[in-house]
Amino acid sequence: MAALLMPTQLTLEHVSPATRLLEKRRQMFEVQEALDAQKSEYKRREAEFKRREEKLKERDLALQESLIKFNKFLQENDSKRARAEKKERDEIKQRISKEGEITRLREQLEKLKVDKAEMLGVLHKDMRYQQYLEAVLDSTDEYPEILELLMRYETLEATHQDLVERSREGHSDQENQGAFNKRFHKEKVDEILEYNNQIAMLQHKYEAIVLHANRLQAETDRQLQESAEATLQLGQVLMACDNIFTRCMSTSHVTHKKVMANEADKDAAVEKLSLIKDYLGDLLIITKAYKPALALAQDISMAGGGPGLAGSPPFSLGAKSERVGSAANSKASVWRSTGGSQLLGPPGVHLTQLSASSASPGASSSAMENSGRS
């Protein structure tokens, strides 16, 4: 329809511009008219669509209202049905409960009937006790009524039960105490055995310690004895050294260094032994030098026919003695210069052996006597 309303375009090739402008204006008016016609058509359709939309909305609202009413109706029906079903179930439960209660009550009734019959039997049976109690009341004035007699019986029965319970508790306590005593006795016996084992172990350790102490005491006593023996031996050596030194100094005419009294015993003994060594060395050198001179004098006296040394000329012996003395002095000076380390006296005899032999007074005196004899 729009295509039908569109204006037709004319083909003008050889026209003036004004004509063309008029033609364009005409076409524009036609297009405007067509556009206005389309707008009016659109407005008409829009109004129609709005009317239809309003109708549809009304119908939709009506439909929704009817649906709501229908749902409400269904809900009311469902609730009525649920209430009816619930009421039916409740009535069924009540009927069942009542039927059960009726059955239970009937059973109770039957049971009560049976109990009544039994109680009637017991009543007839216990009537003799009633008669007996009445006879007791008639025979004594202590209990005026049966109730007091029964109360007295109940009191005695309760006392009896209490005594029985106490007796049972006493037996239980006695058994528990007996078990506790046995367990306590066993524990104490185990402790005693353990203590005995500890005592035996400690006794063994004590014996080992005592044995070790005795061993240490014996070792200490032995060391003390050895120390005492060494001290005694040192004292004997010092006494012998002092004795020999005194004898040597009493017979020697050589001036020596004096040994101070305040010096230590060992240092003084070493000094004395050194002086004794010098004295004995000089004595041995003199003795060795004197023996050839004595033998020469004896040979001279024998060659001269004299009776011996007594008959020999005095001047020759004196000259020989001077030569021997000078030779001895020269040898003694040589021996001192060498430190006394050479052998003196017979072969195999060392000066240290002579000093060691001087440790005892007897040995020193024998050595002095031998040297005197020589």
Question: Topology, pairings included?
Answer:
Blueprint: H1 2-5, H2 17-139, H3 146-251, H4 265-304, H5 314-337, H6 351-357, H7 361-373
- Ranges where pLDDT stays below 50 over 5 or more residues in a row are 1-7, 305-374
**Class of secondary structure makeup:** mainly alpha
Individual helix count: 7
- The tally of strands reads 0
H/E series, N to C? Answer: HHHHHHH
**Percent range for helical residues?**
over 70%
Which band does the percent of strand residues land in?
A: under 5%
Report the principal-axis shape: flat
Describe this protein's structure.
- The termini are far apart.
- It contains seven helices and no strands.
- It is flat and about 210 Å long.
- Helix 3 (146-251) runs parallel beside helix 4 (265-304).
- It has helices at 2-5, 17-139, 146-251, 265-304, 314-337, 351-357, 361-373.
- With 374 residues, it is an all-alpha fold.
- The model is unreliable at 1-7 and 305-374 (pLDDT under 50).
In brief:
By secondary structure, the chain is mainly α. Helix content is 85%, strand content 0%.
